[in-house]
Amino acid sequence: MTSPRVNNNNCRVLILHNCITPYRHHIFEEVSKTFPLLVVYLNEHCITKRGWDPIPRKYNYKYIILSKERNVLTVIKNLGLLLKILFNFKPKIIIIGGHSEVEMKVTAILSKILKLKLVYWTESTEIAESALPTIHRIFAKLQRIIFSRMSDSIMVPGKLSYIAERKILDKSRVFIVPNSIDEKLWLMDSHTQNENELENVVYTWQQSNSQSATKIVLFVGRMTRVKGVIPLIAASIKLLNEGENFILLMRGDGPLKEPLKEIVKKKALNNNIIFLDSISVSTLSKLYRNADVFILPSYRDVWGFVINEAALLGSKIIIGSKYSQAAYILLEGTPLLLERVNAYEIYRVLKYCISDEVNCLHYKKIVSTSYRKYMHQRLTYAGIKMLLTSLCLEGSRCDTL
Fold it and tell me: Could you tell me the CA-to-CA distances from 51 to 45, 115, 376 in Å, in that order?
């Protein structure tokens, strides 16, 4: 008896994404090696300014950017362009990354009219959406349910995702495809600029301190309330006042950066709590590798890609909160997973890791194993390809040997 084989040339995949995001490029590049792929970005820039480089290296996949700005006229123009793309590219599968934009809704409806396979790719969690006003939260929930019902398959990054934890549809249609980072980007040897940048950053405190800090604690992320930076600073100040010998490096921008710098300055601790300006990928990679402790104490996070980065690059100890999917996957069952985000809890876990490094390092093996098992990029690639293959094999979208 013959077995079916996917005819990739007949299985064209169209991905609709709201904006250019660097953590998706490597996935699209890998998928394009197996399936004819076209990625359509509705906008060049995301509405939320993240400070990231949208295209950090050269990628080989086909993509189109519909507009540079977001307004009523560009939405109308985008809808016309999407119709043209649908009829010219002739996709068999459409993947929609979200549901907020008008273009996503219209494309989803068109996929049903044209009898195309629709995949709903969503990362939303109830925790991440808890900050929204009530009416917006209810509306987002309704949209998510409608899109889930319309779709042939749903992709979520982890079990904290709203759809994965709710019985709102047939679970056989839900594919858990973990988020991953571009490991090639972080491990590539071509980032050789600013060779002394790390040394200048880490040892700045030596200019006015006579002692050497024995531990480096690293935070990387947006300096906003939801990232837990306020209790992190409070816990660090308490530890330093108690005589613990470490430096805290805060890398990122955001509305709380300047107020926190003022607090640290008033406490005369600006040689031990250092706020970094923009640094190269090379230097950030070295910071991850040299950090004794990496911490991301988020109140809520859709994922938390910096956890992936710290785990890949070998930060000795990683601390995260249960409200970040990445931290939850890596640290579940260890005392390094913050059950609550407050100054005391951060103080307690940081003190444990700084004072008792031997026991704390015991969990590094668990983290490394979890990364390889759940968050390595090859698992992301395999998950998406398995989903696309299963959809292509349905109906007439396959060849028989």
Answer: 11, 39, 25
366-393 residues labelled b (16+ CB within 10 A) or e (exposed): ebeebbeebbbbebbbebbbebbbebbe
**Cα Rg of the chain, angstroms:** 23
User: Which of the four CATH numbers 3.30.470.20, 3.40.50.2000, 3.40.630.10, 3.20.20.70 does domain 4-180+377-400 have?
Assistant: 3.40.50.2000
Listed as own residue / partner, the contacts of 265-269 with beta carbons closer than 8 Å and 24 or more positions apart are 267/237, 269/237, 269/240
pTM, rounded to two decimals: 0.85
The amino acid occupying position 61 is Y
Ranges of each domain in the chain: 4-180+377-400, 191-373
Q: Length of the chain, please? A: 401
Q: Identify the band that residue 84 occupies on the pLDDT scale cut at 50, 70 and 90.
A: very high
Q: How confident is the model at residue 401 (pLDDT cuts 50, 70, 90)?
A: very low
Quickly state the pLDDT bin for 37 (edges 50, 70, 90).
very high
Q: pLDDT: is 365 or 382 the higher one? A: 382
